[in-house]
Design brief:
Four copies of one chain form a homotetramer.
Chain A: E1 7-10, H1 15-25, E2 36-39, H2 43-47, E3 51-52, H3 53-56, E4 70-73, H4 76-81, E5 86-89, H5 93-105, E6 109-112, H6 122-125, H7 136-144, E7 145-147, H8 150-159, E8 162-164, H9 168-182, E9 192-198, H10 213-216, E10 221-222, H11 231-239, E11 245-251, E12 258-265, H12 272-283, E13 289-291, H13 299-302, E14 308-314, E15 320-327, H14 331-345
Helix pairs in contact in A: 1-14, 8-14, 9-11
Chain lengths: 355, 355, 355, 355
């Protein structure tokens, strides 16, 4: 169990970065050791020691000293000078491909929130078209990466040097399906449908036609059917073949939150109790999953929490079920899970700073 | 072809009623013959000749005379005195069960927007628990009812005395599925999934915990999995058995609009062209359906129009497809379709007053 | 009274342009004479005769022929070849400064929806920093411009060659204030406050940090206090000095609609009836203004209508009043008013095609 | 300085109650001493020891033990048995009128979140029409009440037995105005305008026509001009006469947050620095107010924080200013301020548990 850890965050300007900063600044184990925030800073801002965090994210301002925190110009020397031991990359995947190996080489552990290191199967990675795929360094780095979902890979995460923090959609679907597949309950030949809906923060901070208020508000749109990047994570982590699942994401007119409605067929009729028991056993010891016995979870229950919320409804014939899985895409779907991984990596209580 | 038709509307105070009033007041064939608006009116309002429509729905007010229209106290004598030939019932199904037979007995044709007369199979009707189910009058009335979807039953609607206007969810799903089932394309044994999402107006005007802004806003919730009332319409109109479809509605944080994402598997691999051709043939001569070739339709495309918008995406294997079907729940999902039925019943162009 | 008018629209791709297209396509006097839509079109699209309108604005698609309409590559020759008599400019003001004089020179009347020609006072125009201000051509063009608010300048608009269509905020505030100022009711020394709130479409279609869904949703922000461009219109059209009014716009988390809350003080105590009478007299013969006697208007009443809605509440002392003025920023605040001007310019009923 | 305090909450089922529960459960000084939650509970729920808090507010559920907390049937005996020392009343004002005196009589200090005890002037109280106004008990209770805004009454709150927690609108306006009035800067004869906008949670949890999603969404409405209940608080706390301020609240289509835009005129021209200095001095030592120097605050900055955010813009003439004041109506406008008062009453750091 580690006692004092110096962290750094790259990518604090984005939505996930802001949540990560918030969680780390109030984390009980990091009292007095705020993260180093590093990134691209123009000359004028560099001259004043970086951009005050309160200018980037006014809601992070307080009257108690956080106001002094700044986004500083990134350099490896800066991280070294500050004694950074763990680096969070909340950056585009192209940058994570470059920076993660470098950090590892310098003895810094990495939690990468991008899609850069999540996929072990080359075919699944193809959708990202990484420039460096196939190089020795990339292969060696990938070999060290652990998929950062503590509910599935707690032990490996504890000792990992590189944690590939899962995708937001992927988290909501994998947590709902893995327990049932692991227990051998599902008739996979019949195919699984995962109909997922996400708030607009999932589309990132860049102003685009699709993040324009007039596009997103009072609307709902499906996109990426049969082609979304998170599909590979579902296949690898749930253990499915491509033909066994259809995953369609939708853009919801809300700021944040994901709700996935998942349709499965059982190999043999199930009772409510038998399915509930499978989930309960799988998630025993997993403090960041809440099972809903009485009613299906809703996005409102999960938003601004670090939990994944899972509930289900059985067909009268016991052959089919609808599973509803909710989470906050910026928390359990990104920064909350990253801090959960931080906890696991240091032997701290897994839910510390997340409740 | 009829030339002059006197209509009446019961239930103008609701959301569908308001849209119905708007459509009828601007309908080219009803110029100079505004509907009679009838309903429950308290004594004070009755004394002033009813409640001005502009007080009930301020957005219907104009400076051109509509201001004189009123919601008058309902009586059969009133309808008779005004020579009403066609009655729209935008009322709860309990009231439609009572009023439709009475209207028919008085020689008034009926377009009923409730669920009262949509289902021919007693088992499917059970969910409504109609008090009078099993009576001779109910059976005789049901026997006259035609399911009011012109794309499926144009000829019967033309001569129908009682048109049972379809449910909003049901319309969006039936239009997407019926062409494929009719063409024998689908592998029904694999099961169809219909994941549908609706704006809040679908939940009605009564203030309830679920229509409270704080419940609906920034939220998404699934409800009625395996139990929703519209399921019977899907089974009867598409031609499916209960085990062949799962239908889950969701409450969207938007005022109006439905998007249904529908997952099917084909008996044999299809091409984009072959599926498109099936839809095009089925909807030839159906002006209120728009087929989307290039991109999937979105709720924004359909809202405040009387169209149903249908598009689809094929899996690379050609075995599976995701179909997206959008409409405005108050228009093609209710009042727009009711006026479409009005047109068909009188031999007018089907899209008249709807574009 | 003109019978047949060939119109053209530049700037159909924007929000106001889409509404303008919708209004013109269904305008009874323009049946069979759809506008020419012209603008910047890339070579590939030019080769196919322009971009189908249904691709730009899917909600404008129908099954009745509008699908053939296209955005064509702009040239003065095109307008000439089509016999364009009236040109709507729904373009940025820089372009309107250039195109309006050219159109006038070619004998084409112009309705300009930008801020290019609204202001007669050079000091008020300063905020726009027009490149050509001070040139002879600009001065001559400005001299021909009539401020396009029929409720104030009906007669001049009828014969105008260049109509400067008012700003959206300005319309809502001028209509509320001008009647009271004209009647000499207000104590201007005490100062007027106009606190205005607008939906996001008012900020235009370009994706920016401020039109990002995550910025606008669940938010309210004030901007442009003491500096907003529409201030000059208030001063010139209401007849005020700068020190007599404070105008603060706010960005509302809704797609469209403006509500202005306006605070005035009377020279002498007024009764509800006396104020109502002033408004009624001023707007007699103005079909696009609705006066609200019973309750204050709300944005919902005005949105998707071409009306301005005005109501007020008197303080118990009769000395002060709060006036609430609502409209749809894309309709009475832009395209609806433009079509109202079209009607006035041709001697057609002022509300034609607007109800 | 007190060390251990047993609190109780009545009214936990409402929106402010939920936030109060959340704040108290994570308050560092109340670790291991969760509040007693008491209220009306039906027999069946009483039999199981009350209603689990996680059923009432699913977002309060965690996997760490809060699940055991329950809403128990209220009785004074229960509070006594638990040794309750401080009672939060998040109840309608009628109930606070009854319960506050009883609690005081039993030696329990009270923080009342309703409007029951905020107003010392009988004329200002008239709008509430309290049944017991004029009784000796009511007068004696009122005499003990301290208006619970620490920024104005810190010392009296510290020793108060009954704290009347301010209204949400009132808080946002008083904090913006009091410093300027206290410094003698304002020309009150010219009148102040306070144009305030609040999210829907301010209208309470009861489903009504006005809290229906379809009424509130995509809308903005003004209400209560010249008549809103919070007016009395403005007059008493800022020190104004009725004729010196107009206050108009509006209902915003967002769940939570208040933004007040306040228009003032100075007795003599001011500079930005002079006004900023007045605010800075007034709020020195007030950790829950954030002054914005660079840009005006927005609702997004304040929501889900316990801060009030204040900024202003000066007219070029230095005579007038627009002040923007934001807060979360459920936090600094209700429960956050209540906990701030709790801190002051016990000599704890004022911001404890609020950042």
């Amino acid at each position: 169990m580690t006692d004092k850890v110096q962290t750094a965050v790259m990518g604090v300007t984005g939505y996930a970065g802001a949540e990560l900063a918030r969680l780390l600044l109030r984390h009980p184990r990091l009292k007095g050791a705020p993260p180093v925030f590093a990134g691209r800073v123009d000359e004028k801002d560099a001259a004043r020691g970086g951009v005050p965090l309160a200018e980037i994210h006014p809601q992070l301002a307080d009257n108690a000293g956080n106001g002094d925190l700044r986004l500083e110009p990134f350099s490896w020397e800066l991280l070294e000078a500050r004694g950074v031991q763990l680096l969070f990359l909340a950056t585009p995947h192209e940058q994570s491909r470059e920076w993660a190996p470098e950090a590892l080489a310098r003895g810094i552990r990495v939690i990468d929130l991008s899609g850069a290191w999540r996929l072990t199967d080359e075919a699944n990675r193809a959708v990202y078209a990484f420039d460096d795929d196939g190089t020795e360094l990339a292969a060696a780095t990938q070999a060290q990466a652990v998929y950062g979902m503590p509910e599935l890979h707690r032990a490996q995460i504890a000792s990992a040097r590189l944690v590939a923090n899962p995708g937001c959609y992927a988290t909501s679907i994998i947590l709902a399906l893995r327990p049932l597949v692991a227990a051998g309950l599902l008739d996979l030949a019949h195919g699984i449908v995962a109909d997922a809906k996400s708030g607009v923060s999932g589309a990132g901070k860049a102003p685009t036609a699709k993040t324009h208020y007039m596009y997103a508000a009072d609307n709902l749109s499906a996109y990426g059917a049969f082609t979304h990047r998170h599909t590979g994570e579902l296949l690898e982590q749930v253990g499915l073949r491509n033909s066994e699942i259809v995953f369609t994401p939708h853009l919801l007119p809300i700021p944040r939150g994901i709700l996935s409605t998942i349709y499965v067929r059982f190999r043999a009729p199930q009772s409510r109790a038998s399915v509930a028991q499978v989930y309960r056993q799988f998630f025993a010891g997993s403090p960041m999953v809440r099972l809903h016995d009485k009613a299906l979870p809703q996005i409102q229950h999960s938003v601004r929490t670090c939990y994944a919320d899972i509930g289900f409804q059985l067909a009268p014939d016991g052959q089919r079920a609808v599973i509803v899985s909710c989470l906050d895409n910026l928390l359990k779907g990104a920064s909350g899970q990253a801090v959960q991984n931080l906890n696991v990596m240091h032997g701290w209580p897994e839910a510390e700073g997340l409740e």
